Amino acid sequence: MGLTDSASVRDMDMPPTLLSESEIQSRVDELASEIDATYADTEMLVLIGVLKGSFIFLSDLARRLKVPHRVEFIAVSSYGAKESEHADPVRLLMDVRHGIDGEDVLLVEDIVDTGHTLAYLKRLFAAHEPNSVRTCTLLHKPDRTEQEVPIDFLGFTIPDVWVVGYGLDYAERHRTLPYIGELPPEMR
Ligand code: PRP
């Protein structure tokens, strides 16, 4: 098999594009401008990325911001369907390192699906009495909403399809694709 053949075999592993790299980068530019305008008078914005999915979006977004900011990460996990009797379907795996009392907090997500994760995090952080808590997500799937949570900065509204790339995975695959792909059933 020649080089061309092996390249085309690899192309077959590439999910078809839902949002291209340039569409994403343009939208991240716009989101950074919106966030800068909202926090024009803020001395230090605290960006909290929700691991793992937000790590690429957060790094692109943060590097475009003009408002002074610091970066924190938090990790959460969802309970599976069998554990659905739990009062809260989300649990905390790793907390932020520094306190956020009196701070302006922006939670950064790759995707809001059912809304449980963002709703849980808003409740969690509100208890710390920050000055403000807003939310930013690259993607939102409104068809999947189970818990309404306000999204202050939104990249794209998408249909209920399985998306990968730009931080999002399928069984840990495709996370570092530079675009958002739609994973068809035959690729799962
Ligand atoms: C994804 C995503 C959000 C959450 C959204 O994380 O990063 O945190 O799901 O879903 P929800 O709105 O239904 O709560 P995932 O559990 O896939 O973990 P990962 O980011 O580590 O891949």
Structural write-up:
The structure is a single chain. By secondary structure, the chain is an alpha/beta fold. It has a single domain (19-80, 87-187), classed as Rossmann fold, CATH 3.40.50.2020. The protein has helices spanning 3-11, 21-38, 55-64, 116-126, and strands at 17-19, 45-51, 69-78, 90-94, 104-112, 132-140, 153-157, 163-164, 180-182. β2, α3 and β3 form a beta-alpha-beta unit. α2 packs across α3. It is globular and about 50 Å long. The protein starts with a helix and ends in a 6-residue tail after the last strand. It binds 1-O-pyrophosphono-5-O-phosphono-alpha-D-ribofuranose.
Secondary structure layout:
Blueprint (H helix, E strand, L loop, with lengths): L2 H9 L5 E3 L1 H18 L6 E7 L3 H10 L4 E10 L11 E5 L9 E9 L3 H11 L5 E9 L12 E5 L5 E2 L15 E3 L6
Parallel strand pairs: 2-3, 2-5, 5-6, 6-7
Antiparallel strand pairs: 1-9, 3-4, 8-9
This protein binds 1-O-pyrophosphono-5-O-phosphono-alpha-D-ribofuranose.
1-O-pyrophosphono-5-O-phosphono-alpha-D-ribofuranose (PRP) binds next to strand 2, strand 5 and helix 4.
Strand percentage: 25-35%
State the separation between the terminal residues, measured CA to CA.
26 Å
Look at the structure and give the CATH class: Alpha Beta
How many structural domains in the coordinates?
A: 1
* Extended strand count: 9
Helices and strands, in order, run as: HEHEHEEEHEEEE
